[in-house]
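Newbie here. two chains, one complex. Structure please?
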Amino acid sequence: MMPFHELISFDEAKKIIMRETKPIKRCEEINIEEAGERVLCNDVIATINIPGFDRAAVDGYVVKAEDTYNASFRNPKRLKIVGKIFAGEVASKKIENGEAMQIATGAAIPEGGDAVVMVEYTKREGNEVEILKPVYLGENVSKKDEDIKKGEKVIKKGSILTPAKIGVLAALGIEKVKVYEKPHVIIAPTGDEIVKPGNPLEKGKIYDINSYTLSTLLKPFANVVLNDIVRDDEKEIERILDREADYIIFSGGSSVGERDIFARVIEKKGELLIHGIALKPGKPTIFGKIGKTLVFGMPGYPTSCLTNAYTLLLPSVKKMARIKHEERKIKAKMAEKIISTIGRHQIYPVMVKDGEAYPVFKESGAITSMSQANGYIEIPANVEYVEKGSIVEVTLF
Amino acid sequence: MMPFHELISFDEAKKIIMRETKPIKRCEEINIEEAGERVLCNDVIATINIPGFDRAAVDGYVVKAEDTYNASFRNPKRLKIVGKIFAGEVASKKIENGEAMQIATGAAIPEGGDAVVMVEYTKREGNEVEILKPVYLGENVSKKDEDIKKGEKVIKKGSILTPAKIGVLAALGIEKVKVYEKPHVIIAPTGDEIVKPGNPLEKGKIYDINSYTLSTLLKPFANVVLNDIVRDDEKEIERILDREADYIIFSGGSSVGERDIFARVIEKKGELLIHGIALKPGKPTIFGKIGKTLVFGMPGYPTSCLTNAYTLLLPSVKKMARIKHEERKIKAKMAEKIISTIGRHQIYPVMVKDGEAYPVFKESGAITSMSQANGYIEIPANVEYVEKGSIVEVTLF
């Protein structure tokens, strides 16, 4: 039960973690309907023109434009109706001078036709149509490569697949797309004191909280595997560390005890890079690397674990997943005075309401601090207190 | 092929759609590890105290506080070590005067003990420990209901389950939680001209785009079922409308043609509430109600369909899902002049870069307009153009 003596600063810790985080290179092929928010692994080059054929941009009559040049409401031009084309159909005949064909928006322009008269400017008379307004060559016709030209690069590698980008893939007829794999994360709850929710609780034990807060936070960006509870035992911990993953995260139930097993095992199998951070809460944090796997030993206390997860773990997982980590920050007025701890950078959960930031920190062991917060403020290591009424910057969850 | 004559305003359309949208009432029970971002269906009342027992807040020695009152670095108080308690364990004996027990953070305070001396203020000497500093009654002890009191309402019905709120459920030992069901959405691609991506494309046909943009947009908030392509046939459309769902969304490939089938069928089976909106793009939009099912007939053009989905459909689905719809808006300087259409409210896709908004609208039939945009501006029906350099408000996707 040795405490953490050589703490590194919060900034230094962030630097080390981000330096060791490499954007993922593995790709996988998935169906486009599952690809929302995923990151494209290759440039997408158009293999076809879109729409692929000249088509009517409006409902009306396709004509030879020259046949309409003298048309007006007073002197309509009469053309013979020689057919009807709906979207998806192909006309069975060409258009000749003096002829018109009824056409629906999106339908392919038949051979010989070169403009479409909107239905509003026509009047049907039996087998003939009166054209009430001239159209110019190409009017109301969408050209066959107007949207996308064959050979064009339409989406760049590394793009996040938004609804519209998925639409571009669909437009090109692509049903499967290569995206970067999500980082593979193993969360291993550890500690002889923790019990899986749903099971009975003996005296002295507590339910596992951290595996659930961590997995909920990371799931949108990672493939998270929740391991069974691991006992505070060097052999068991080694066995977890032998598994293949991008991240192995140990989340304990209490504070320092088991951490030294982690530090020892990580040093033995790889590199121990962080062993305690001058941070409140979140001091007893371990970070290292075994081969290419990043290993986090998170503080056991739920608030400490979760604030660490927001500030240190999530930016790393998103960097590996190639997703930009944008923090949403707002200004607020401190509703009460906060006393801080000199010498440790503090992450202080607050609840912002009507422009005021209310402190909700109870103690690192409490989960309710975080469940009532909608963000946190950072108090630098050299600040003693934050005065009531002062303007603070809140990072929203 | 009748066009839309009586258009209603965009604001009126929004009002009608939101008025008809009722927050969902059905609940389902799911595992807490799947419950992130879901909406809680009941108040959660604590059935146990958390932590559930008095516990050590630090690593050190548990003592009777009165035994330490005269202790100092110069005159340490010697106490006999009578045991060792790790987190999760229960001490086998009481603490008597003159005794101390080694204790780990999180471990239950044994009977007789009433304070913990931090390990930093102790010095071990064989079977004895020197206490170098006095502790007061209750010092470094977390009380058994400090975090959550039994009977307390810890999370309110209607709350969105954040990582920390899932942590509260875990802390209480809850493994399954009741959340509101996600709205059940059927997307039915319609039109004789559309083909499912992955299949060969005959002349005059186009790939189905809208089902994919819509499902990608709605999936985070809804259970989306993508139907097979439905032909422009009244009977087939009726069969879809007989299915049970909160939303049935028809997304065509072109513009007006098939819409009249929808309007007719909706009027026959229920209420047709919107038949054309004075909106650009997005005019040929249909909205109605059949029993409790909301029915959308989306414009066939991909840009029209998707801008409508962002502005009219998504706010409705989120309201039904009980998730607050917060639009992210930023100010930007118009990089180029835009000519607008008098008489129709315009949704104009733009790409904001370095504080400037670049127009990216090609035509309603193009999907690339939207795939290059990261937001849109709204141009009221009575505005003719937006001058280059003017400040516009961009709603980000």
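Moderator note: The domain at 55-142 of chain A is CATH 2.170.190.11 (Molybdopterin biosynthesis moeA protein; domain 3). Chain A touches chain B through 99 residues (CB under 8 Å). Thread marked as resolved.
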